[in-house]
Design brief:
alpha+beta, Jelly Rolls, five-stranded antiparallel beta sheet, three-stranded antiparallel beta sheet, 4 helices, elongated
Length: about 130
């Protein structure tokens, strides 16, 4: 699944897209993995003010220059920021749907946009 971002630091709710890509599993575990080193995933509330707060928080996590990797491609801060969140999330599957809490959403956190990001969605059935 591909997700386009619009800003250098951007938070995109991908919950519905993940659920649409979910393999046919009644009960199990869904893993969502972002196939990039300057983007991350998190489970949190997708409320617009909180999304703005997450973007501001991510922007403040690291100085944007002065890193050794910047000599290569100028985005060390993006690698550092995304490393704090991680590249994957796991969500239980119940009755063929993501079993998220009332206010939980799967959020893609872009740290080096705008870009098009690839997400992998896999499902592991429960052993009964």
């Amino acid at each position: 699944m591909n997700v386009s971002t619009e800003h250098r630091i951007d938070v995109v709710d991908v919950t519905e897209r993940v659920e649409a890509e979910l393999p046919a599993v009644d009960h199990g575990l869904c893993t969502v993995f972002v196939e990039h080193t300057t983007a991350a995933l998190s489970i949190n509330e997708a409320e617009p003010h909180l999304v703005d707060d997450i973007e501001a928080f991510v922007a403040e996590l690291s100085a944007s220059d002065g890193w050794k990797h910047d000599a290569l491609d100028g985005n060390a801060d993006s690698h550092l920021r995304s490393s704090l969140f991680g590249r994957s999330v796991c969500v239980p599957i119940r009755d063929g749907k993501l079993a998220l809490g009332t206010w939980q959403s799967v959020l893609l956190i872009e740290c080096d946009g705008p870009r098009t990001r690839s997400l992998s969605v896999t499902a592991t059935p429960s052993v009964e």
